[in-house]
Design goal:
By secondary structure, the protein is an alpha/beta fold. The protein has two domains: 77 residues, Fe-S cluster assembly (FSCA) (GMP Synthetase, Chain A, domain 3); 239 residues, Rossmann fold. Helix content is 31%, strand content 24%. The strands form three sheets. Strands 4, 5, 8, 9, 10, 11, 12, 13 and 14 form a nine-stranded mixed sheet that branches. A hairpin with a 2-residue loop joins strand 1 and strand 2. Helix 3 packs across helix 11 and helix 8 runs parallel beside helix 9. It is globular and about 65 Å long. Bound molecules: adenosine-5'-triphosphate and magnesium ion. The site of magnesium ion has 5 residues, from helix 3.
């Protein structure tokens, strides 16, 4: 007897390639809602509105691939369109997401499912703000989330989360302080905001300790550990990638060309080091004029979206300029800001 299941349908669909992204429709995230009932198969094919003309053929190919499975009585693909930009286009030359990830020799972090880096290249574009608010939004969406402050020289997360003091040690491991359901570990808990004076091998050792001598997942295994990276593409980045199997990286940029240039460099570094880039977040995209509600692009427009497009990765969303963003996070009124919904959207796109 055949064993027609949603999984066998997904497997069949993963042989169909999307002409726009060059990836198969499963890993391009275009298939959802697969149901199988008494040989009848249904699923949703989400297409990008920008390419809707090419998509009728793709639907036929999807249906044909599933029809071939033994035991199939009928196949129905429902097409839905979503705003352009969510489905990554084909990358331009110079970008290539890793296919074969040589990470099997890296030890996973105990009690953590996935480690994701938040990085930017340029300093001060809002990595820490993004990592923090994304973590809060993910926690709000029901995920178990941790935050690792990999900015050993300039830790900022403890202050932003309103946490301080030495973490208690239980059975040889630090218990990460938590706020709003997000567990956090940072050099800041150990040295205060004083920059740590560390070089070369000490960096790698310190990162190792923050990662592995922390008792992550006080309330169950963490779904995600977000890592707030320092600016640049230096020792800490290399060290992180040599130590942990990273599930991916989120790249933060502001709309300005200078920031995009650095973000591009950073993105290519991750790809080269076998870490898939999950998408781009554009921070400080526009300012909403209080009197009129008009959106004003202070730093130019579309830099983040363009970068995502040329690299063939998802554009996860944009965050407006909010003068109170730092303040409210510090005061921990993190859900009040107008930008909270922007992060909810980004978290959803990331998931
Ligand atoms: N959307 C925003 N609107 C207004 N201010 C913002 C926004 N995002 C970040 N900021 C502010 O910009 C400053 C830099 O942000 P943040 O510390 O998150 O950047 P970073 O990239 O982590 O910096 P570094 O490279 O120093 O680690 C902070 O004062 C922060 O409050
Ligand atoms: Mg930072």
């Amino acid at each position: 007897m055949s064993s027609l299941t949603a999984d066998s349908v997904k497997l069949a669909l993963s042989t169909v390639s999307d002409p726009q992204s060059g990836r198969d429709v499963m890993s391009a995230g275009m298939i959802s809602g697969v149901v199988v009932r008494e040989g009848k198969v249904g699923f949703v094919l989400t297409i990008d509105t920008a390419f809707k003309d090419d998509m009728a053929r793709l639907r036929e190919q999807c249906e044909a691939a599933v029809t071939k499975l033994p035991g199939v009585v009928s196949v129905t693909a429902v097409m839905t369109a979503q705003a352009s930009g969510k489905i990554p286009p084909k990358p331009e030359a110079g970008y290539s997401q890793p296919r074969d990830r040589a990470v099997w020799n890296l030890t996973p972090v105990e009690n953590v499912f996935k480690v994701i880096a938040v990085a930017s290249g340029k300093g001060g574009v809002g990595k820490s703000t993004t990592a923090l608010n994304l973590a809060l939004a993910l926690a709000k969406a029901g995920k178990r989330v941790g935050l690792l402050d990999a900015d050993i020289y300039g830790p900022s997360l403890p202050r932003m989360l309103g946490l301080s003091g030495q973490p208690p040690i239980v059975e040889g491991k630090m218990v990460p302080p938590a706020a709003h359901g997000v567990e956090c570990m940072s050099m800041g808990f150990i040295t205060g905001e004083e920059a740590a004076m560390l070089r070369g091998p000490m960096i790698s050792k310190t990162l190792h300790q923050l990662l592995r001598f922390t008792r992550w997942g006080q309330h169950g295994k963490l779904d995600l550990l977000l890592v707030d990276m320092p600016p640049g593409t230096g020792d800490i980045h290399l060290s992180m990638m040599q130590q942990v199997p990273m599930a991916g990286a989120v790249i933060v940029t502001t709309p300005q060309e200078v920031a995009v240039m650095d973000a591009r460099k950073c993105m290519k570094m991750f790809m080269k080091l076998n870490v898939p880039v999950l998408g781009v977040v554009e921070n400080m995209s526009y300012f909403v004029e209080p009197a009129t509600g008009k959106q004003i692009a202070l730093f130019g427009e579309g830099g983040g979206r363009k970068l995502a497009q040329e690299a063939g990765v998802a554009f996860l969303g944009e965050v407006p300029i909010d003068p109170f963003i730092g303040q409210s996070a510090e005061e921990a009124h993190v859900y009040d800001g107008a930008y909270a919904s922007a992060y909810a959207t980004i978290a959803e796109a990331l998931l």
